[in-house]
UniProtKB/TrEMBL annotation:
Protein's name according to its UniProt entry: Recombinase
Source taxonomy: Bacteria, Candidatus Beckwithiibacteriota
InterPro entries the UniProt entry points to: DNA_bind_recomb_sf, DNA_bind_recombinase_dom, Resolv_N, Resolvase-like_N_sf, SSR_resolvase, Zn_ribbon_recom_dom
UniProt keywords, alphabetically: Coiled coil
Source organism (scientific name): Candidatus Beckwithbacteria bacterium GW2011_GWB1_47_15
Span of domain Resolvase/invertase-type recombinase catalytic: 3-149
Domain Recombinase: start-end pairs: 156-264
Length: 508
């Protein structure tokens, strides 16, 4: 009867979860030997890597075979035995010379025939190929990582580096604002200064904790394909494993505007906050601005006035100049209509929180159901394995049934993941909107904040027209319209703002 030596190895550098621990390998081999009626005379375990020859325990194994004390080796898989060309060659040579009579693996079928030896040498080469590939990967460093879809550098704003598994994950605090910045910018109505204001308002700062540089906004954020799933490394694009924050379509739209802006931005005159925001109702030309100085002899004082007027680029137009002050007042009224005073804001939040709780309870019930189903599958898998080990079912049926269960398990896990992601995502835009309404209230009440007024006006309106010194507004989303149609007067906003908009209205 052939005497077998059981050889188990798992090295510390093997991160592969597919490889069983040494304890499990021993268990599996014991069971296997019992089933196959094999006589094991010795167990050898090794925690060295098989990449280089010269493993102590492995050499002992070879010596035992050469001394004729054992004639067979039992291991979990050929790759446990040899991962370098010398070890593999040694084992095949021992088979050739008849000193080694048999190899047994629970996961690999071997027969001591020319075909069998050919197959085992293939399995050894495959193991070697795997090792070679690994070291090649290290050499190639970044490029290899990139090809696999992993980003080798610091995560762009809106993402974080997960130090544990070296992946890039979505930044739960900043990602939504980066995505929103793309959506705002895509409308073509915002400048880089606006974008910086928006990001700062939402506490998205540079790594140094400062407002993001305008150049970074255009180049590192709005022109970075990372946000829709590609990675630009030295001008070369790679597909990334990270979750995209935006669609390619949205990115492309922003690119067009980035190109226009690089020309425009230089020509925008500073100090004119409402430029690029309003069109003339009469002729459709854009509204431009200019200053006039007036000298008052009595006080010996020169005062500068800013006026907005139709640029008359589209031909004849009869519109008069509008003083900046007048425009600003009207701008505040527009914003005031869609603002929420702090007291009303609190009511909104409470209502929202109640809904969030209801939604949460619902998803908890769903999650529990799925978890129970998962447990059932685990139990079935256990029973199946026992049935297989007790030889109640044949390997083929075992594998078929197992695959079926594993697929069902993956399906359930997928569902669980979805619930966790989308959970009560519909509440999110609404709470953003509420925050914005409160912000509108603050903006409307602050003084000397022209740029902020302009930014807010762009946020709440899709088009602003000037007609006989009167600003006409189209609120950008149905939500704002519902809100703006409240009976209200500018002085008494606090009293009126307890009117809640329709819950079903399509906000944003
Ligand atoms: Zn005009």
């Amino acid at each position: 009867m052939i005497k077998y030596i059981a050889y188990c190895r798992k090295s510390t550098d093997e991160k592969d979860k597919q490889v069983l621990s040494i304890e499990s390998q021993i268990e599996e081999l014991k069971e296997f030997a019992q089933r196959e009626n094999l006589q094991i005379v010795k167990f050898i375990t090794e925690s060295k890597t098989a990449k280089i020859p010269g493993r102590v325990e492995f050499n002992q194994l070879i010596q035992l075979i050469e001394a004729g004390e054992i004639q067979g080796i039992l291991a979990w898989h050929p790759d446990r035995l040899a991962r370098n060309s010398i070890d593999g060659g040694q084992i095949i040579y021992l088979l050739d010379t008849g000193k080694l009579l048999d190899l047994k693996f629970p996961t690999f079928w071997f027969d001591n025939t020319p075909q069998g030896k050919f197959m085992i040498s293939m399995a050894f080469s495959e193991a070697k190929y795997y090792v070679d590939n690994l070291s090649e990967n290290v050499k190639r460093g970044n490029r290899q990582k990139l090809r696999r879809g992993d980003w080798p550098n610091k995560a762009p704003l809106g993402y974080l580096n997960n130090k544990a598994d070296k992946t890039i994950v979505v930044d739960p605090n900043r990602a939504k604002f980066i995505a929103k910045a793309f959506r705002l910018f895509a409308t073509g109505r915002y400048t880089y200064v606006d974008m910086r204001r928006f990001l700062s308002q939402n506490k998205v700062f540079s790594r140094a904790g400062k407002p993001i540089h305008l150049d970074s906004i255009s180049r590192r954020i709005l022109s970075n394909p990372f946000y829709y799933g590609l990675m630009n490394f030295g001008g070369e694009l790679f597909a990334g494993n990270h979750l995209p924050l935006i669609s390619k379509k949205l990115f492309d739209r922003c690119q067009k505007i980035v190109k226009q802006h690089s020309r425009q931005e230089n020509s925008i005159k500073s100090g004119f906050d409402f430029l690029g925001l309003i069109k003339c109702r009469e002729c459709g030309s854009s509204i431009t601005a200019e200053t006039h100085t007036k000298f008052y002899p009595r006080t010996n004082n020169t005062v500068t006035y800013t006026y907005y007027r139709c640029s008359k680029k589209k031909g004849k137009c009869n519109q008069r100049y509008t003083p900046k002050k007048e425009l600003e007042t009207q701008m505040r009224q527009i914003i005031q209509k869609v603002s929420l005073a702090p007291t009303a804001y609190k009511k909104f939040l409470a209502w929202l929180e109640k809904d969030r709780q209801t939604a949460k309870l619902k998803s908890v019930a769903e999650i529990n159901g799925l978890n129970n189903e998962l447990k059932t599958i685990e139990t079935k898998l256990d029973r199946l394995l026992n049935a297989y080990l007790d030889q109640l079912i044949d390997p083929q049926s075992y594998q078929d049934k197992k695959n079926e269960l594993i697929q069902a398990k993956a399906g359930l896990q997928e569902k669980l993941k979805e619930i966790n992601i989308t959970g009560n995502s519909w509440l999110e835009p609404f709470s953003n909107w509420t925050d914005q309404a409160l912000h509108a209230w603050k903006t409307m009440r602050a003084k000397n904040n022209g740029p902020e007024l302009a930014f807010m006006a762009k946020t709440v309106s899709s088009n602003l027209f000037l007609d006989n010194q009167k600003l006409l507004v189209n609120y950008v989303s149905p939500g704002w319209n519902v809100f703006a149609s409240r009976p209200t007067d500018a002085k008494n906003s606090e009293k009126n703002s307890n009117l809640l908009p329709d819950q079903d209205s399509n906000l944003e």
